[in-house]
Specification:
This protein is of the alpha/beta class. 41% of the residues lie in helices and 14% in strands. The chain has helices at residues 11-22, 34-42, 52-62, 97-106, 126-135, 155-159, 171-184, 195-225, 232-239, 266-276, 283-292, 294-308, 337-347, 375-379, 392-395, 399-405, 421-429; strands at 3-7, 26-30, 65-68, 79-82, 115-118, 142-145, 164-168, 189-192, 243-244, 247-248, 317-321, 351-355, 384-387, 411-414, 433-436. The strands form 3 sheets. An 8-stranded mixed β-sheet has the order 3-2-1-4-5-6-7-8, sandwiched between helices. It binds nicotinamide-adenine-dinucleotide. The site of nicotinamide-adenine-dinucleotide has 27 residues, from α1 and α4.
């Protein structure tokens, strides 16, 4: 079986490391964050993702999964996966300093014939000019790029089912990368002709997703604005029944915004790359502007409902369900809930209670948010129940339970719970008001 080193044990690196161990690989997971390494060593999983903590404990017990901050461990690996972060710099360009430092740390330990595969999202050219050029001064390594496309909330399943794209520096690098994924995960592997093509694949995927969601947001705003009883989800479902070429129209769903570590930055990567190379790209800027505006749009919708009902905003109590940026994930990085809470405060709302069973208390430190551990306490006497993610716990809340706890006549604002038509009718029959995004 393959010996693997995973460099960078954040969300992506830990998921890949634990899953590969479960497939029988011997995995060394390496990170400069010693606190994180110590937590993994103890069997504590600081990353909130369904199934990850269980997988950690299971695979640690097999002895195939080890943690360290010692980069010399990469020397024994057949494959070194680079999964460090690539944040957005202040000027909206990609910050690849972590890629550089991880490459420098690996370099003295590599040897001929190893495969170094970059999984972090990088602009085209970084695998070749930063990673390969440095490493090949030390040894004749194979080098490839393979975009990571899994989504938080269903990461373990997606890692083992999504097709994997690889682009090697040369045919041999591609061949080793292809064999590695086929033999470990058993998924379809699509080999593209260069690392740059593979690097572009990831940016193209995320630009498509962000732009598609922006389209859904504009449709939702139009449904809200028109003087008819429109439900944007019904409109989208109808529109998506059209086959165009080989595929159906596939408009995604609107919500209270787009968050997380990828969609909020990758379109800006595309934009800054275009600007640097003389191409004035309008779509990334447009999608980012539309999607980043949704939290304020939703706060305004809630405030307008209150004003229409002659309510004094400062006297109202709001119950916000969900802080994470994604359903069934505890990740709050760049969550749209944070700007939405800020916008609710700017609108003048009084008490805002927040409940999210997936989020660690300390992750919300400094946000002026006190996480309430009890969903019922959060809902009790609320004048507005604001659903901002659709964790399983929130999906299973019945209209009757909401009505029992919330104040009479309360507003249920549906940012992402997507109540179906019969549930909406039930909420209304129970005396509650309902407002969704575009519905
Ligand atoms: N989170 C997602 O859903 C997702 C999905 C697809 C792709 N990606 C991409 O994958 C990459 C990793 O994302 P993430 O969410 O796991 O990030 P993360 O911030 O959770 O993890 C990055 C890890 O790398 C470590 N690190 C930083 N510099 C290092 C170095 N020099 N040596 C060793 N470790 C180092 C950090 O300590 C951290 O633990 C990014 O490029 C991201 O764009 C993320």
């Amino acid at each position: 079986m393959w010996k693997v080193a995973v460099v960078g044990t954040g969300f992506i690196g830990s998921t890949i490391a634990f899953v590969l161990a479960s497939k029988g690989c011997c995995v060394d997971a390496i990170d400069i964050n010693e606190r994180r390494i110590a937590a993994f060593e103890r069997g504590d999983c600081p990353i909130k993702e369904p199934g990850l903590a269980e997988l950690l404990r299971e695979q640690k017990a097999t002895g195939r999964l080890r943690f360290s901050s010692d980069f010399s461990r990469v020397a024994t690996a057949d494959v070194i996966l680079v999964t460090v972060g690539t944040p957005l710099a202040e000027d909206f360009s990609p910050d690849i300093s972590h890629i550089r430092s991880a490459t420098d740390a690996i370099a003295p330990h590599v040897h001929d014939g190893q495969l170094v595969m970059v999984k972090s999202t990088v602009p085209p050219g970084i695998t070749r000019t930063v990673v390969a050029e440095r490493l090949r001064r030390f040894a004749d390594v194979h080098v490839a790029f393979s975009p990571e496309r899994l989504a938080e909330g269903s990461a373990i399943r997606e890692l083992q089912s999504l097709p994997i794209v690889v682009g090697g520096l040369d045919p041999q690098s591609s061949a080793v990368a292809e064999a590695f994924w086929q033999q470990t995960l058993g998924v379809d592997v699509i080999v593209v002709s260069s690392p740059e093509a593979a690097e572009m694949v990831k940016l193209a995927d995320n630009l498509w997703i962000d732009l598609n969601i922006a389209l859904a947001h504009d449709l939702a705003k139009l449904c809200d604005a028109l003087p008819y009883d429109l439900d944007v989800l019904e409109v989208i479902a109808g529109a998506n029944s059209l086959k165009k070429g080989q595929h159906y129209v596939n408009i995604l769903t609107p919500s209270n915004g787009v968050g997380g570590y990828c969609l909020t930055k990758d379109p800006w990567f595309v934009h800054s790359l275009g600007a640097r190379h003389g191409a004035d790209l309008l779509t990334p800027k447009t999608s980012r502007t539309i999607n980043a505006g949704m939290p304020a749009y939703c706060a305004l919708q809630i405030a307008q409902w209150a004003r229409r009902h002659d309510r004094v905003l400062a006297n109202l109590q709001l119950a916000v369900l969900g802080l994470a940026f994604k359903t069934n994930s505890g990740d709050v990085r760049l969550t749209p809930v944070k700007p939405l809470l800020d916008a609710l405060r700017s609108e003048g709302f009084g008490t805002v209670r927040v409940h999210d069973p997936m989020v660690l208390k300390e992750d919300a430190d400094g946000w002026g948010v006190e996480l309430n551990p009890s969903i019922d306490d959060t809902l009790r006497n609320a004048d507005g129940v604001i659903f901002l993610v659709a964790h399983d716990e929130f999906r299973s809340l019945s209209p009757a339970h909401i009505a029992k706890l919330a104040a009479p006549g309360a507003l249920v604002f549906d940012g992402r719970r997507y109540f179906d038509r019969s549930e909406i009718a039930e909420l209304q029959n129970l005396g509650l008001a309902y407002k969704g995004v575009g519905r």
